[in-house]
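Q: what does this look like with glutamic acid bound?
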Amino acid sequence: MAYRRVVIKVGTSTLTDETGALDRVYIASLAMQCAAEHRSGSDMVLVSSGAIRAGTEQWENYVGQPAEPLSRATIPFKQAMAAIGQPLLMQAYLAAFGAYDLPVAQVLLTREDFGERHRFLHARNTLQQLLKMGVVPVINENDTVATEEIRFGDNDTLAAMVASLLDADLLILLSDVEGLYERDERGRYTRLVREVHRLDESIWRMAQGSGSRVGTGGMITKLQAAQIATTSGVTMVIAHGRHEGIIHHICRGRDFVGTVFHPQPRKLCHRKRWLAYGLPASGAIVVNEGAKQRIVADGKSLLPAGVLSCEGHFLPQQVVELRDESGRVFARGFTNYSSEEIARIAGCQTAQIEQRLGFKRADEIIHRDNLVLVYSR
Ligand code: GLU
């Protein structure tokens, strides 16, 4: 069975050689594999890193001396390198996909594009249009405008957001690792995990301390991507990008080396995905254990009686996180009351809201319909 819609993310370390130059032979093989899947009827979307590193290599050639290592470089320098490298990336993709008469299109996105509803819809419409026309969108973060606080920073998360936005069936993260590894008590990798059905604590523990040499993502960002993908109904695979025919093997469900994350049984609707992953939270509400249980286990709303305190300043209708007494975030939602109002009604009965505030906007601080559970560590 061919997948209807596939998003493939390729990391910097997979796309560039040891000098930082784009590996055009590799890009040609990527194009060949994508073209084959496209011919079998799959919409193909590429999320490509590599701009900063390729730009740096180009810059070093211009000036004839090595640049500061990227790990120590300033944000403006990296943004400048992304601006130099992005056209090089596209040039390489145009040539490689052109050999298979497959048109490509550059799409640069930021986190804000997923946070604001009208931008989110515009991005989705444009991508849908490109796919309808048989074009392969090549997506990267718009590094030159993305400010530090709201950057995705890594294309793993961006790719998962794109897969969710487009209701893809499959997201493939091609990396310089084979997948997620189990580790022994001394932290040594022991066994590749072939399938993950639930992203529980034991899975998150496996990801700690891992990271790739030249890309920005490590295993943690890949698991965060898995959380977004699998709650959006998307199957996600992590695999080594350099294995022969890897895309074809994954798309055909053949025996391949990698980790498969299965979609969660109940996928979130778009509105809840947007609430869970689209916007940075404006603040947090700390709730007691009883309220947490009613929200998590019984699917109830948050009432004033369960609130202990607030963190940050926020207004009605903004997105806030819900934290338990240990500080762990377990849900997000649109609040009916501001942080100042909540400070005055925290712990009280619903019947007392009006008496304390002089008005009542709603019985609930956050109504269940405006609340989504999230897993955090
Ligand atoms: N957007 C960055 C680039 O193109 C890559 C971010 C990442 O490593 O995932 O260089």
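Residues 12, 49-53, 82, 140-141, 143, 154-155, 215-217 surround glutamic acid (CB under 6 Å). The longest helix spans residues 75-98.
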